[in-house]
Each structure stands twice: as C-alpha cells, then as structure tokens.
User: What shape does this take?
Amino acid sequence: MNPDSRIERLGAAAVEAARALAELWMVYVSTVSGIVRGFTRRRGGRGRPKGEILRQLYAIGNKSLIFIVVTLGFIGMVMTYEACLQLSRVTGDYSQIGSQYIRLIVTDFGPTLTALMLATRVGAGIAAEIGSMKVTEQIDALRMSGVLPIDYLIVPRFLASVVMTLMLSTLGGAVMYTAGGLTAQYSFGVNPNLFFDLSLLEFHHFGIMVVKAIAYGAAIPVVAGFCGLRARGSSEGVGWATTAAVIGSSFAVIMLDFIISATALFLWGGDL
Amino acid sequence: MIGERALSGVGAGAIRIAEEVGGILVLTYQVLRALVPPRIDWRELVKNLYKMGNKSVPIVVLTAFFAGGLMTLQTGPFVKKLGATSLAGWGAGYAVLREIGPILIALMFSGRVGANNTAELATMTVTEQLDGLRALAIDPIRFLVVPRVIAMIVMLLALTVIGDMVALFGASVVGRAMLDIDWSTMYYSFSENLRPYDFLHGVYKSIAFGGAIAVSSCYFGVTVRGGAVGVGKAVNAAVVAAAVSIMLLDFFITYSTG
Amino acid sequence: MSAYIEFKDVKKSFSGKPVLRGMSLAIDKGEVMFIIGTSGVGKSVTIKHLIGLLQIDEGEIWFDGTRVDTLPERSMAPLRKRIGMVFQSSTLFDSMTLAENVALPLRKHGGMRHHAAIEEAKQRLAQVYMAEYADRYPAELSDGMRKRAAIARTLALKPDVVLFDEPTTGLDPVSARRVDRLIRELAKTLGMTAVVVSHDPPSIFGIADRVAFIYKGIVHVVATPAELRASSDEVVQQFINGKSSGPMETPGF
Assistant: This one.
C-alpha cells in the first residue's frame, strides 16, 4: 500500500468526521431553535402533537426507572465495598468514607452513571424508533405534510430527556448512597450515622451535578436522533443507527464529564 | 383501577423478562454443548476476531484514556490536600484496574461490538439467511454464534488489558497536566500500591462481562421478529440486557472474590 | 408403489387461523411438480414443512419410504442434504462472495478444504452460467443473478430433491424465463425431483410436469398443465386466466 493513498484515506476520514460533527451541531441548533419557536408562537407550534412531551417523559422516565435503580444500586454497593476494602488495608479509618462518597456521587457518579445507563437504554430506543421511521420513509412523509422532523421528533424527546436525566440522576444518586451505606454497615460494620454524613456538600457541588445532568440529558437525544435520521437502507441501516447512537451518546457523556470536571477543577481548585 | 393495570403491567413485564432470561440460558447451554467437542469454524472465528477488534480499539482507547484522567481528577485533589501525592496513583489506579476499567470498557464494547453483532444477526434472521443455513444442514449455533461468542470474549479480554494500560497512562497525563504530579511519582505510586491481583481481578471480570455481552447479543439477534423495526428493538434489548448483566456480574464477582 | 414424497392429510394453523386443512399430495421421483395458488394460501408453508423449518399440527409427511414430520431437529441433517431449498429471498450470505457461498456446503459436508471447495464452487457457478461473477458479493448483483447463484449453492451437495419457493417472483420476464429453463434443464440432466411453488403462469405452463392447485387449505386439483387448461372447474379457470372477478374466495380482499 503506497503511503499517499493512506494519507488520502486518513484525510478523507477526517473530512468525513468533520462533516458529521458539523451536521450533529446543526441538529443541536435546530433543536434549540425549535424549542424557542415553540415558546414564542402563541399556540404551541405547528407539528408538535399535544401531549407528545408528556408521552416522551413517560417513555424515558417511567420505563427506565427500574433499570436505573437496579444498575445504580448494584454499582453503589460495589464501589463502597471496594473503597472500604482498600481502606481496611491501609488505614482502617472509615470516618471519611461516607462524606467523600456522597461528594463523589453528587459531582460525578450520580449523573454520569445514570447518563451512561440512559445512553444505552434511551439512546438506543430513540435511534431505533427514528431509524425505522427513516428507512420506512415516514420521515419523508412528515416533510411532505409540512412538518419539520426536528420539531416533531427530536424536540419533545430533548425536553423530556433533560428533565428525566436530572430527576433520575437525583434518584440514582440517592439509591447509590443508600446501597453504599447498607453495604458498609453489613460488610464492614460501619455505623450508618457515621456514613450518612452530608457535611462536606456545598452549593457548587449541586451546581456541578445539575450542569452535568442537563448536559447529558441534552446530548443523548441529539446524538441518538442524529444517528436515527441518518439511517440508510433497511434493517441493516436501523441496526447501524442504533449501534452508533449507543456509542456516540456514551462517548459524549464521558467527554462532557471530563470537560465539566476539568472546568470545575480550574474554578474551585483543590476545594472541590 | 389504575393500580390494577399497573400491577398487571408489572406482572407481564416480569414474565417477559423471565422468558428472555430463560432463552438466554438455553442459548448459553447450546453454545457450551457445541464446544464439546470443539469443532469450530476457524475462518469465521478469525474473521470475527479481526472485525471486532478493528472496530473497537479506537473507541476503547479513547474512552480508557479519559476514564483514567477522570479518576485522577476526582481523587487527585483529595490526595493532594492530604499531601499524600505518593498515594495519587493508588487512588486512581485501584479504581481503574478493579472497577472503572473493566466496566467502562465492557459498556463501550457492548455498545460498539455487541450492538453491531446483534444488528448483523438480526438482519440475517430477518432475511431468512439463518433458515438458509439450516436448509443446508449447517447448524447456525455452531457456525455463526459460537465463533462470535469466542471472538467477543477474547477481544474484550485483550481490550481490557490494553484499556487498563491506557487508562493508567491517561491518569498520569492528567495528574501531570492538571495537578502537577510528577510522572515518576505516579509510576512509583502505581507500582507500590497496586498488586497483580488487582489487575487479575479486573481480568476475571472482563471474561465474565465478555460472556454476558456475547450471549445476550447473539440471543437477541437470532430471536428477532418483524422487519427493520424488529432489528432496532433487538439491538435496544441486547444493549440494555448487557448493561444490567455487567452490573450484576460485577457485584457478584466483587463480593465473592473480595 | 408409494410415491417419492407424500403429504398425507396435513393440517397447520398459525395463531389459531387454519392455513392447511387436510392437504394431501403425492409427488413422483424425477418429476417437476408445481404447487400453485393465491398468495397466503399456504404454498411456501407446505414445502418448508418438508425440511423441518416448520412443524405440522396433524397429518404425515413421507420421503422415500421414511416418515419425516416426526424427526427431531438433530436428525434433520441427512434429510437436508438430500432435499435442498432455494428461498424466495435468495438468502445468499452477504458477507461472502458467490464462490464462498457455494463453497460453504462443500466445506462443511463435502469434507473439502477451502481452496478445493472454491474451485469446485466456480464449476458449479459455471453450471448456472454465473462463473464470471464468482468473486463478487451478492449485494452487487441483480435479483436474477442472485437467484441463479442461490440455485448453484443449493445444488452443491447434489441433492435428490430441490424445493423452489417462488423462483421467478419479482424477476423481469427475461430473467424469469432463464430461471425456468435452468430449473427444467437441471431436473432432466441431473435426474432431480423439483417441487416449485409459484403463481407465475408462464412458468407453470412452461416447465411443469404436473400442477397441484391449493385452494382453501386443501389440494383442489392435481393435473398436468394441459389438463388444467382444459378444466371446466371455474375456480381453476379464474386463477389461470388471472381474472379479478369470479367464484374464487380470496379472504382479505
């Protein structure tokens, strides 16, 4: 293989990636402008069916509830177990663990793990739905009847996802903390009063949590919807769209986590 | 009245989940039986190894790098405040090797390779290619499923090992760049505090995760019903099942091996 | 003398709806038997039962003196090597070239190694006039070509019987006639028994030895094409002349 063609292929791939990112950004912008449009128009905007947002809230929130509780509960138990195990090896002093744990949950693990789980469940679901509509030409049919697919499909899911991610993150964090406390008590004899210690929490911690949850909640439907709209072919295309959505939204969550955490570090330094 | 409907909904959901779990166990049994005696289609195995590895290395490496960095961001300031920078590597490294590494890499793998695999198998089922294999007296389990299961387990194992290394590297980079912790301090802290057993613990997990992802991915692929819509649903189900299994297995392995 | 393939009073329902209601048919060795009828009447279902892709509810199916509807999945392999099937959607494997597709059964059952199998596969493709496309992928080819390649794959193990599920449906007239001719040629030169499901009159009257007309879940009539044409049965006449009105009941329309 001659080096020129390899460079060519690399260049072509980079261009393609840039184009995809640009399109993704456009979807995001269109979604936000769709929301603004909806608010400024008197009667709730044409094309968005009444109660669609509520339906999406139900689809995302209700159906993911048990899933989130179960997965975050288990991971909460595991993390506490691991941390206690390590501490028992090093210092044997469990006084800090509860307060540190809740800080980590609020600023990071709560929203991030919830969002990662939602990226698989909700992201795949949105991409599968929209992708199937695309390959069965329902999206074109929508356009024909004068409705913007973004307004009709993505905006309701966007709003629902932001709200639900925030709520589920809070719930998930609470579940993690509780599960952790139970684990610490039963496996290491840590006194619950010692563990459930919220004294280290400050206002900016919650700010970080809200920012992350909103960012994740926004990213997942935009990425997933984008992948769905790009589906091509028939069943293969839908499969590809769903796969790409899960990967894309998971990765977006991790990147956003990193960016927001790093920013927080700069803003609050070691006091985090 | 709403309560009744909700209860029956939960009941129906529970039955459905039980059905799926049962089906997955049946498939696991079929796969295991096909391995004794091991008559595997080597071409399919190699083809899948190549395909899965190729697809997932970039995303796993990237994810691992950032995950490692994240760990340092979280534990670093705390450690610095205590002045125990020599423990910085311990904080990040321990979490990475035992938990974050295997879990995140498994989740990414499930999304990239698992979902893709389900989509492929589902498309093949929908287009009657699976019936076509049966009509040629070729057992789809032996020919399609077993090579993929083996390839996924092997691949996830390799990726976890690589990913662990990259994550530790990412942790060091972030430590150096944002917390002013020396490379040598990090390295020293890794080698002092992390035991080989911690590494192996993560490896055992990745094998278990790999098996769970592989079997559920194949199961939902071959039991798909309906056309394009069915394929999307199958991928969705596979990814969710894999995520839940990963969390459950993580819990059981952590508790039983300590 | 009992027939080569025999369906005895076969009944099959899907989700409570009866499709086959006591279908009986005897097929002789070496003949080209067409099974015809309107869409959804149970034609494809019938032949899928023969190789165990579906299970019947009641009745018996016999092949070459052995009862086959009661065979467990594990014992199906020898049967499937003697009875091949060409599906309606061709079902070539997308991830393999044509040669690799045809070579697959040769590798698995013919005990051949990869390269030998590929060479043999190319010869089989030549039999269906597709040798020059041996290294192409199914997605790159037209429906007619894929159909011919699928036939080559099914013939790889030299089965005694080949089932064709609507081989000409969806093909342009020229390709359709080519496929017909191929089926006839292979049946006569290889001494193969062919069971063809079809609702394509040119095929039916072009290459069939006998025709079984399924209507309302049973075999309404079994005859040669000439006898069918001359039949005074109104339902038969409506079908073969393709009339939209007549005594025929077509549920759902």
